[in-house]
C-alpha cells in the first residue's frame, strides 16, 4: 500500500469521508470510536448522548427527539497520525436520502459498515449505488464480530455479487461470536488479539506456533485453516482498483469493543485518496490549484433560533480559504465576504482561519447561499453533481388564513432553498405544491413552518404522484408541450419547467406521445 501523504502539503494529509450503512449496523458506535482516536471526544457514548440532549442546534427539531433519529447532517473534523480527517455524517433515516445523497457528493471516500449477522441490507445497497455514480472508493468494515455472525466467506461473496464490487480482505477474523479472539492481518502476517496489546504480533504465517500460544485458550485449528484458506484463495488488495472504486479492502471487527477500528483508520489514512479533482462545467478543478473554489452541498438553518441564521456547508475544492477573503458567488456574480467561516468538531465549532481542499467549512448567511452554489476567487465556474431527485410524494400546502398566503410563499421559498423540500409553483395559479423523497420531510416542513414562521399549515393530496423535469432541443416543441399540458406543469425553485403526472404509467404514455421532449428525474442544481 502506498501513501502519498506529504506532511508539508496540507491537501495531501486530508481525508474527507462518510460512513454508509443500514440503520443499526453500528455507524454511531464506529463514529464515536473514530473520534476517540482523534481525541475529538473524551468519552465514547458522547455522540449518542449529545443527540438526546437538548441543544441549540436541534432545539427546534422536536421530531428529531420524538423519533430518536438524527435528521441533521454535520461534519466532524479530527486529527490523527499526522492527518486531518473530515467525517461527514449522513442522516441515518431513509427519509432523508436527499440530504444524504448531497453529502456524498462532498466526500472522497466512504466506509461501508456491514452487520456481520445481516450482510448487505437495503439502505447500504442504495447508498453504495450513489457512491458508485462517482466511483468513490469504499473501505468495508464488517462489524459485530463479537456476536453470532454469518460465514465471512459468504459475506464477501454477497458483497461481490449484490454490489458487483470486488473484495480484498485485509484482516481475517479469528473465531466469531463468543469465541471471537482477534484478527489476522493477511497482508502483514500479524495477529491482533481482541484483549491484547495495541501493537499486533508478527507471525511467519498461519502455521506459526505463535498462533496457538497467542490464542491458547481457544481451539484454533479450525480458525488457522480458515485463515490459510483466506490467504491463499481470496483476492489481494490492489490500490489502483480501490481508487477506481472497483475493489474494497475489508476489515473485520467490533465497533462496540473498539476492535479493528485502529486498522480501519490507519488504512483510511494510508490508502484513501486525498481530496480529488472535482468536475465543473467545462473543466476539472484540481485540488492543488492555487485559487480557492468550493461548492455548497448542505444548508442548516436555525442553529441559533433567535436569529434566522443559516449555515451553508461548503466543500473547499481547491486553493486556500482564508478568513475575511472575498469570494465570488457565481450564480449571482456578486462578491461575498467570508468573515466568519467555521470548522465543526464533535462538540464544538471554531472560526476557520484557513481551510484547504477537502475541508468543509460552515458559512453563516441570511439566505444568500443556496444548495449547489459555487464560490470562486473570480472564475466563472460551476461545479456539477449536487443533484436534485424527482420527488416521490407530492402535496399541496394549505393555510387557513388567506392573508398569510404571501408569507407562506416566501417561507416555502426559503425552506426549499435550504433543501428541506422541493417547491413547485403550478402554471395554472393553483396553490404551491411541495415534493419530497421521504415522508418525514413533510413533517419537518410542517414543524418548521409552525415553529419558525408561525404558519400553521396542512397538506392536501394532489392528483399527481410523480414528476419530471422537461427539456427539448427545440424550444418551440417544448412550448407546445407545456401549453398542451398547462394544468400539469409547474416551475421549480429555479424556474425550470416540471411536468407532473398521476402515475408512472401515464408518464410513460405522455413520454411516448412526445418523443422530442426529454423527461429527467435527476437535475443538477445549477
Ligand atoms: P447505527 O444505527 O448504525 O448508528 O448503529 P449504532 O451504532 O447505534 O448501533 C446499533 C446497536 O448495535 C447498538 O445497540 C450498539 O451498541 C450495537 N453495536 C454496535 N456495534 C456493535 C458491535 O461491534 N458489537 C455488538 N455486540 N453490538 C454493537
Walk me through this protein's architecture.
With 526 residues, the protein is α+β, with helices and mostly antiparallel strands. It folds into three domains: 227 residues, Rossmann fold, CATH 3.40.50.300; 106 residues, Rossmann fold; 136 residues, Peptide chain release factor 3, domain III (Alpha-Beta Plaits). It has 14 helices and 33 strands. An eight-stranded antiparallel beta sheet has the order 28-25-27-26-30-31-29-32. Strands 2-3-1-4-5-11-6 form a seven-stranded mixed beta sheet, with helices on both faces. Strands 18-17-23-14-15-22 form a six-stranded antiparallel beta sheet. Strand 26 and strand 27 form a beta hairpin. The protein is globular. About 6% of the residues have low confidence. It binds guanosine-5'-diphosphate. The site of guanosine-5'-diphosphate has 16 residues, from helix 1.
Please specify the SSE layout and strand pairing.
Layout (H helix, E strand, L loop, with lengths): L13 E8 L5 H11 L8 H7 L9 H6 L7 E6 L2 E6 L8 H8 L4 E7 L6 H12 L4 E6 L8 H12 L2 E4 L1 E4 L7 E4 L4 E4 L7 E2 L6 H6 L6 H13 L5 H5 L3 E6 L8 H11 L6 E3 L2 E3 L7 E9 L8 E9 L1 E3 L3 E4 L4 E4 L4 E3 L4 E3 L2 E3 L3 E6 L8 E3 L10 E3 L3 E7 L5 H13 L4 E5 L6 E4 L3 H14 L3 E5 L4 E6 L3 H10 L4 E3 L5 E5 L2 H10 L4 E3 L1 E3 L2
Parallel strand pairs: 1-3, 1-4, 4-5, 5-11, 6-11
Antiparallel strand pairs: 2-3, 7-8, 8-9, 9-10, 12-13, 14-15, 14-23, 15-22, 16-21, 17-18, 17-23, 19-20, 24-33, 25-27, 25-28, 26-27, 26-30, 29-31, 29-32, 30-31
